[in-house]
Structure formats: C-alpha cells, structure tokens
Amino acid sequence: MKVLIADKYPEDKIEKIKNIGYEVIYDPSLKEESLIEGLKQHNPDALIVRSTKVKKEMIYSSDKLSLIIRAGSGYDTIDIESATERNVFVANCPGKNSIAVAELAFGLILSLDRRIPDNVQDLREGKWNKNEYSKARGIYGKTLGIVGVGKIGQELISRAKAFGMQVIAWSRSLTPEKADALGIGFMKNSIEVASNADVISVHLALTEDTKNMIGSDFFNAMKPGSYFINTSRSEIVDEKALLKAIDEKGIRAGLDVVSAEPAYKEGEFPDDIGRHVGLYCTHHIGASTDQAQSAVADEAVCILDEYKKSGMVLNCVNPSE
Ligand code: 3PG
C-alpha cells in the first residue's frame, strides 16, 4: 500500500510508516494544482496532510485513495462530503496537540498582560520605556472564562489554576456536575462567560453551529479592558466586531487564527490585522511544537497500521453506515 505525505512530517515517523509495510512518497511542497498532480501521478491508498486543503478535485483525482489522515485535530480543511461520496475515509488525530495549543493560549494571556511583544519591539528599535511597560495588572486571582471545554480547554484549566486564576466555562456538553468535578464555575451560555471573566479563551471546533458564534453580543458583554484569546478557528469569531471592541472598549486580544491566514507557509502578510494596536497575532502555530507534532505523527502511524492490518479506521470522522 502507498501513502502520500503532502505536509511536513517527522523523518523518524516516516521510517515507522515504511516499517509497517507502506511505500511512502513524501513531498511537503504539494498543494492545490501540484497536489492534484501528485495524487494522479502516485495514485496512493492514503494521503496524510496537516493544514493543506483537500478539496473535491483532489479527492476525485486518485482512483485508489481510500483514506485521508488529518495530522492534527480540526478537519475543516478537508471536503468531508466529497470524501464520503467517493467512499474515502477521513481520520484525524484528536487531542494529540492539545497541550501545545493550551501552552500558546497561556503564552498569549501573559503576553497581553505584560505586553511582552511591544516591550521587545521597543528595545529592538533602541527605545527604553520602563515607565510605560510597568503598567500591568497581573493575572493572579483573576477569572479565566473558557468557551469550549474539550481537551484543549481542560489543559488550559490546570495551567490557569497553577497561576492562581479562578476558572469559569461554558461548553455544549458541560453540566454543573461536570464543572464541579473540574473545579470550575458553570456558566449557562457563552454570554455569561463574556460578562463574568477578565480573560477569555475560545476552544471550540468549527461547525455550522459555532461559525460566527462569538460576535457583537459577546463583545458587548465583555468587561471593558478584558483580554480575549482565540487559538481555535477564525470563522468562529466575527473579526470586525472584535476589532471594534478593541478600539472602543480597550479590550486586548491574542489571535493565533485570522481570516487572512495565507495558504502558503512563508511569504507576505499584507493584511492590516497583524498591525492592529491592542492585538497580538501569531502565525497559526498553536500545534507547532516538536512534542505535539511527534505525538500527532505517532497517532497517524497507528491509524495506518490498523488500517493495513484490519481495514478499520481509527478516529474516523465520516464512518460509512
Ligand atoms: C489543528 O487543527 O490540529 C490545529 O489547528 C493545527 O493545525 P496545523 O497542523 O495546520 O498547524
């Protein structure tokens, strides 16, 4: 059986895939047209991608393709409907990069409070300004509000507690009992989180229900001057409403995901959002630690191994009836 890996993938895990009996074609440069060509040329049984988009024309360009593995958690980058139509299974690697994302979310919280990126930028420009950067509030005893208490949200809870924060949350499946067991406050909806927290972090998967879920109602409910973090998907947040809240309510924000995210890994970023005052944007690197990528790649190896042995697809997100 043949696997095409169309994104960066750890060398040692490629060896593992070979050792379980797959022929491996590794070309992390493939995307759009070149991915279509690559699929036609190699006609693989399985395709592994990170955030490279897998569209209908790609799914239809290989006769043998029967499995797509999303080496990550969110699979909104894959046309699931076309995959299902074509009897191609799609599997993801949930939870394997949760710690990395929670670490970045926490890094953004501390960055917002101490304005670490601006501190550094000023010194790089030869400016000393202890007066200005001494104005920080501190996060000890403050309330962190989490919207979406899945694996990443739960990793954030323990980190917030270690910093002496109170935690409140809303999540689709959170109940008062579950909240008690996690040692956090139960909120009935996301707006309640917005109005009661000093720092808010969003950890939702992108679905039809969560698209644009965080909009002007949410930002109107937030306390003036509070902090807002999104490391999930840009489509969940109404960016215009967020920028307005930053400008008019003194809200500070940290975003690892923006609507202007380029499809390429390196190049220009002309969008003004990267320069907006009161907002720190990072390069969608939440999952990008060696530890997380190694854990994700190991999970993909397990999926391939099981698929070869039994035909079963672990973590399948589009099981056939
Ligand atoms: C995920 O869905 O796992 C994260 O957003 C990471 O995506 P990436 O693999 O494209 O960095």
Taken together, the total number of domains comes to 2
Mean pLDDT: 97
Main sheet strand line-up: 8-7-6-9-10-11-12
CATH third-tier fold name of the largest domain = Rossmann fold
Explain what you see.
The protein has 321 residues and is α/β, with parallel strands linked by helices. It has two domains: 2-96 and 290-310, NAD(P)-binding Rossmann-like Domain (Rossmann fold, 3-Layer(aba) Sandwich); 98-281, Rossmann fold (3-Layer(aba) Sandwich), CATH 3.40.50. 39% of the residues lie in helices and 15% in strands. α5 packs across α8 (151-162). The protein starts with a strand and ends in an 11-residue tail after the last helix. It binds 3-phosphoglyceric acid. The site of 3-phosphoglyceric acid (3PG) has 10 residues, from loops. The site of 3-phosphoglyceric acid has 10 residues, from loops.
Summarize the entry for a quick read:
With 321 residues, this protein is an alpha/beta fold.
Keywords, separated by commas or semicolons:
alpha/beta, seven-stranded parallel β-sheet, Rossmann fold, 15% strand, 2 domains, single chain, binds 3-phosphoglyceric acid, 321 residues, five-stranded parallel β-sheet
Write the layout of secondary structure elements.
Layout lengths: L1 E4 L5 H9 L3 E4 L5 H11 L3 E4 L6 H4 L7 E4 L9 H6 L3 E4 L5 H17 L1 H9 L5 H4 L9 E5 L3 H12 L3 E5 L5 H7 L2 E2 L3 H7 L2 E4 L13 H6 L5 E4 L8 H11 L2 E4 L23 E3 L8 H21 L11
Parallel strand pairs: 1-2, 1-3, 3-4, 4-5, 6-7, 6-9, 7-8, 9-10, 10-11, 11-12
Helix pairs in contact: 5-8
Bound molecules: 3-phosphoglyceric acid (3PG).
